[in-house]
Structures are given as structure tokens and as C-alpha cells.
Amino acid sequence: MNDIVLNARGVSKRFGGLLANNNLNIQLQTGKLHALLGPNGAGKSTCINLLSGDLPVSGGRIELYGKDITQLSNTQRSKLGIGRSYQRTNIMMNFTVFENVRLAAQSRKPEAWKILSSVSNNTKIIDKVSACVARAGLESKIDRLASALSHGEQRQLEIAMVLATDAKVLLLDEPLAGMGAQESACMVELLIQLKQDHAILLVEHDMDAVFAVADEITVMVNGEVLESGCPNTIKQSEKVKVAYLGEEEDNA
Fold first, then answer.
1. Which of 5, 66, 182, 236 is the most buried if burial means most Cβ atoms within 10 Å?
2. 182-201 burial by CB neighbour count: b if 16+ within 10 A, else e?
3. What is the pTM of this model?
4. All domains of the chain, ordered by start, with CATH?
């Protein structure tokens, strides 16, 4: 259950003279949520982009179930089971919830080129879409246009779409951004549920949410790991308090 699914070792990314990620080591396991924290510009989104294949690495190695995927594209990694969300919602606003998730589900089928064809007689696709929508908490909104959903519901829809691709690794980039208290609580409950059978990396600024769901936390500063450990270790770390939480060291 807790074997390593995604293993990033010594991963680095250089943009000209800027070292955005430097020698990062991240391990993701099914049944656990690993949170990635740090101030703006720390390199968190760059890390997700490297793991998803949206950016090529400058150094290091990334393995999925022990297989080297370092040179694979984002599309190839997605087909192997790596799904991700983005800081900006990536959905089709003029399509219904069902249609958005249906297109994601069909992208994994051999006949994906027929993506605009009718699925009225494809019970497997319909059942899969319904299950993903329900798991994301949108069952009552399945026929509603994405544009008519609240911000929080749109984020839930994006997760439903990722689930429809059969992803086993979820790379979630600030899924709670812009949410109110009630929407955040719903997303936290969804994350707790999803980590039971997924390996999750979560980038998030909502500290209360992170400490409510994370099993392990890595804190980044200036592209490097400052501290990594269980939530209690991070809470008690003087380095984290100074560099990220904004607290002064007690020199008394």
C-alpha cells in the first residue's frame, strides 16, 4: 500500500543563470499526501512541472513504479498514470460537467480520435464519468455548464477530469486557491478521501488545510529543500518559522 510510486532523485531545473530547482528529492506513496510548501518563487510549481513532464529536467532522475520516466513527455507520463491540476482552472466553460469529464475519460481509450462522437450507447464511459463526478462531489451538478459552477466546484470538476484519466499519481497545484471557508472544507474532505488510493503531491498556501491533510511536508526556499518531515516536525522547525512562517528566532 505504501510502496514508493513516484521517486524524484536529485532533480534540478536551470533557466539560464537561474537555478529554479536544485537537487530535489521527492517520494510519493499511495495512501499518503505529500505537501510542498514555500513562499512565492520558492520553486514549487516548477517542481510539479518537472514531475508532470511539462518541463524537462536539467539534472536528476524521475521514476514511476521503478521505471525511469525522466525523458518522457507530459502526454506519455499522463498515459502511465500521472495526473495534474494547474493554478488556473483548465476546463471547458461552455461544456457541461458530464461533457468535460467524458472528454477526459475518452482520451484514455484506443478510439480517442473519436472524441467528439456520441457516447449514448457506451455504458462503460457513462458509468466511469458518473463515478468520477460523484467522487468529486458534483453528482447533483452533472448536467450543469461548467461556467455556472462556483469557483470551488470548478476546481472539483478539474479533479474529476483527472480521475477520469485513470491517474494514480495526483499533482495538485493550489487547488484551494481563491476558495471560501466552506469550499475549502469540501476540498479538504475530498483530498482526504482521494489519498486512500492515490499518491498525492499538493502545493498549497492554506496552512490550515495542509496540516489537516498532509502526511509529509517538504518546505522549499529559493529552489531548495529547507526542511522535510511529518507535520509536527515542520511546525516545530525553527528554520521553517524564520524562512516561511515569518517568525523570529528566539535568541534568549
1. 5
2. ebbbbbbebbeebbeebbbb
3. 0.90
4. 1-81+168-252 (3.40.50.300), 90-167 (no CATH)
